[in-house]
């Protein structure tokens, strides 16, 4: 319980920072809306099947946008030093960050999915389930990679290079769950991805934030 | 409390210090002096566990939750208020009676009136006072202070003098360019070249 309370305190801090700064969520919402509007006119009418892929690429890139900014407050003030010194389990820093980015992504998707349904095709329960599962995996692995990238010099370049290859299975699982008549297999695949990468990120985060 | 033998630190090919021996007994107040770049900050970061030595042995007989660390930067979120920052650290350090303790520190360091303002609006001296509140919040046994009088005005410096005297019995490792001020409290001095 203490572990979850620590993670919740850290996630709450990120929500407070966002409420004060309003830098990340508006950018994510505007980005995903702009992508759908652009592709509404760019995709030929008969290419409806491509819309499923578009949804997933948009979700991955929107998550990336949130992740790029995830550790900016900690980097700018070297606050990560103080968080690492706190007696809480260091993986709570990862969990708190993953939870806050997940919250930001859910807000962006709450605006994006109705727009996607209006522009392209209806969003069924399987797609919503796949989006939720994908969000968990993207934020779990993304928060770890964002912490790795923030320590490097070319951090803006490094994060996409690390994150996008690891997001490919999410796109595969998400598109599969969206277009197939039997989405259970793909939902299971996304759940497995979540479990594997959440455990990996939880177990390795300490080594990322300490020298 | 702190014992180091043959401690060395390099960043790539750059040598910071080499073969350093250090003993800080419990209750000791050790000053670390030396010119810029001599490794004062690096030594404090090694003792805090924020960096690893390149060679040598370092033992610190305090859990990281019992260490109070004052760095060059205040290590607080600029967009949050003083109250929100201290509340976060109070939660992470599981400080009992958190709100009362935070209120008492903010009062004592003259930040109570500004407690709801974002730290970004604070002067450098006010940020240093807040950083001291953060470092002392959990009542640490070992205090690692890097230039604690930095940016403090006369009143702030006098306040800190009183705080340090009141904390006698705790263990201190203090990096400073102004050893004269702290000499009455010091039990030993380590001069880095």
In a few lines, what is going on in this structure?
The complex is a heterodimer of chains A (about 210) and B (about 190). Chain A has about 210 residues and is mainly alpha-helical.
What form of chain A results from the Cα inertia axes? globular
Low-confidence stretches of chain A: none
What is the helix/strand order of chain B?
EEEHEEHHHEHEHE
Number of domains of chain B: 2
The sequence of SSEs of chain A as H and E is HHHHHHHHH
Neighbour order of strands in the largest sheet of chain B: 5-6-7-3-8
Helix content of chain B: 25-40%
Number of strands of chain A: 0
Q: What is the overall number of helices of chain A?
A: 9
N→C terminal distance of chain B: 24 Å
The tally of domains of chain A stands at: 1
The top level CATH class name of the largest domain in chain B = Alpha Beta
Task: Compute the number of strand runs of chain B.
Answer: 8
Any idea what the radius of gyration of chain B is? 17 Å
- Characterize the largest beta sheet of chain A: strand count, sense, and whether it forms a barrel: none
Structural class of chain A: mainly alpha
């Amino acid at each position: 319980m203490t572990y979850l309370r620590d993670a919740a305190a850290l996630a709450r801090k990120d929500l407070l920072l966002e409420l004060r700064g309003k830098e990340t969520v508006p950018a994510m919402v505007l980005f995903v809306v702009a992508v759908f509007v652009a592709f509404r006119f760019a995709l030929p009418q008969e290419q409806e099947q491509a819309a499923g892929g578009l949804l997933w690429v948009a979700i991955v890139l929107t998550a990336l946008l949130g992740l790029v900014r995830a550790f900016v407050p900690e980097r700018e003030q070297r606050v990560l030093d103080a968080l690492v010194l706190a007696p809480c389990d260091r993986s709570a820093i990862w969990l708190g960050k993953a939870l806050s980015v997940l919250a930001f992504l859910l807000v962006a998707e709450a605006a994006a999915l109705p727009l996607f349904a209006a522009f392209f095709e209806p969003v069924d329960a399987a797609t919503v389930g796949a989006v939720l599962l994908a969000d968990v995996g993207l934020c779990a692995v993304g928060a770890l990679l964002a912490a790795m990238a923030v320590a490097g010099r070319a951090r803006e370049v490094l994060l996409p290079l690390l994150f996008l290859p690891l997001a490919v299975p999410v796109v595969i699982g998400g598109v599969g769950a969206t277009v197939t008549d039997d989405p259970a297999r793909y939902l299971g695949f996304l759940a497995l991805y979540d479990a594997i990468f959440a455990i990996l990120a939880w177990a390795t985060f300490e080594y990322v934030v300490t020298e | 409390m702190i014992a180091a033998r043959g401690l060395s630190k390099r960043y790539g090919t750059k040598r910071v210090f080499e073969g350093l021996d250090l003993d800080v007994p419990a209750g000791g107040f050790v000053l670390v002096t030396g010119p810029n770049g001599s490794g004062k900050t690096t030594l404090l970061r090694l003792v805090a566990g924020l960096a690893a030595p390149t060679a040598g042995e370092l033992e610190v007989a305090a859990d990281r939750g019992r260490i109070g660390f004052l760095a060059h930067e205040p290590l607080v979120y600029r967009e949050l208020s003083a109250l929100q920052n201290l509340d976060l650290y109070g939660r992470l350090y599981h400080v009992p009676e958190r709100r009362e303790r935070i209120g008492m520190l903010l009062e004592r360091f003259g930040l109570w009136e500004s407690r709801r303002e974002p730290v970004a609006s604070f002067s450098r001296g006010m940020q240093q006072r807040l950083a001291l509140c953060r470092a002392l919040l959990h009542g640490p046994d070992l205090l690692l202070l890097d230039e604690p009088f930095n940016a403090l005005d006369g009143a702030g410096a006098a306040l800190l003098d009183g705080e340090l005297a009141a904390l006698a019995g705790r263990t201190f490792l203090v990096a400073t360019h102004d050893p004269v001020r702290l000499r009455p409290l010091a039990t030993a001095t380590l001069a880095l070249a």
